[in-house]
Amino acid sequence: MRVEQGGAAAVLERVPSHLQTTTPEKIFWSHFSPNLAPAAWVIGTLVVFLGLSGWAGFWVLVIGNLLGSLPVALCAVMGPRTGLPQMEASRFALGTAGKRLPSLINWVNCVGWDAVNNVPSALAFMLLLKMAGLNTPFWLALGVLATAQLLASLGGHDLVQVIEKYLGWILLTAFAIVGCMAVSHAGVAPSSTSVATLSFASVTIALGAVSSFNMGWAAYASDYTRYVPENTSSKTVFLLTFLGTFLSSFIMELFGLLTGAAIKDPSPGAVIDALNQWSGPFAPVALAAVAFSSIAINAANDNTASYALISAGVRVNRMLSVAVTAGTAYILAVMGEGSFVSLYENYLLLALYWIAPWCGIVMADWYCRPAHARSMRMLTREGWTSSASLFVLVTVLTIALFSSTPIFVGPVAQLLDGADLGYLVGFVLGGLGQILILRQRHGVEILPEKEHFHA
Questions:
Q1: What is the C-alpha separation between 262 and 3, in angstroms, rounded?
Q2: Which residues contact 415 (CB under 8 A, 6 or more apart)?
Q3: Model confidence over 316-329: pLDDT tens digits?
Q4: For residues 347 and 371, what is the distance between their CA atoms, to the nearest angstrom?
Q5: Residue 181: which CATH number?
Q6: CA quadruple 182, 184, 185, 187: dihedral sign
Q7: Shortest CA distance to 204 belongs to which of 454, 382, 363, 416?
Q8: How many distinct structural domains can be found in the chain?
Q9: What is the Cα Rg of the chain in Å?
Q10: What is the pLDDT of residue 185?
């Protein structure tokens, strides 16, 4: 296992072929383990509170996770071919200047989710230490977890991959035990939802929450596939990424769906209290799983954030970037132990509207080039491109018109009684707009590229 170099070149330049030695099976774990976290359980609980219990909620989880996991898998395919982190690879469409804005937004999101993920984990860690007779203040419990996350992410790609693999097995076992006990004690509430009572707004909000939880990982995808040999089957990369992302989030959200009726509210604190109560003699296992799940998710968060900050144009050492990210997230989490967390989560949900148009543009640019222009796909475009302008325009319009969050509801969403179509609209507009740009640039009909999924 090697420590990834600290210079900006580790992000800005493709991985040399002789270093692309990561085994494909690690792709699965790098996309599986981070979703074994209380946040996914909370989303399943949220679906119940939106009025979608029983089979209605089940199909929302299936469809939402499909919609969210597909972009992640399609982006992951780019890693072995480009040898670049995901945000840096977007320079092929957005340009060297154009990719800085989404890279900076992604860094902010990484910091924010790092902080939000750490709050419930630190609370669980405090309860775990209290069982051992240690009354630990929040800032100290959080500091222990944040230090572990920092050390994991300082090593870079290889160390994060190893942690995801072995910690993934531990978390899967722990949450399987805790989940089964929770379902047994909570009881599965009968479905109170019928087709006649389904609200279009509640369905779209639930689908948006479920799909965005996974879609956010699209901006990380090739970060953990770029060290895989370039000749690795694209079908293999796609399938391992898709299964890792879909299965972990679906399992955790399904536990939330099955127990949601017995949890007082869809918040991390309420979920932790319920798990602690239902787990009985396995309560330490439940609390440890919640606490240490933050290492799996935030090791990836901090590492990806370090890549994103460099791609945003901040030319700092990668390890310093990791330290800045982890330190900023720690401060935010300490500040957010109280009501700040819910406010910050709402902000993050609003900020995630940028992911959909970014995915649409980057994926259309990669997969929809005409045959004669495929060799230009990995040609770096200098400056700010028309695709970068498209990204800004679609993101602003999506938020202003279609978003539906607790802090802002766009006029179109208001007309639809709060229905959230922002993610779908942003993705479609971004993708179609990029296809039009490609057609204008190359003057030919654009067809989906099949060559990418080579055997």
A1: 46
A2: none
A3: 888 888 899 999 99
A4: 41
A5: 1.10.4160.10
A6: positive
A7: 416
A8: 1
A9: 21
A10: 80
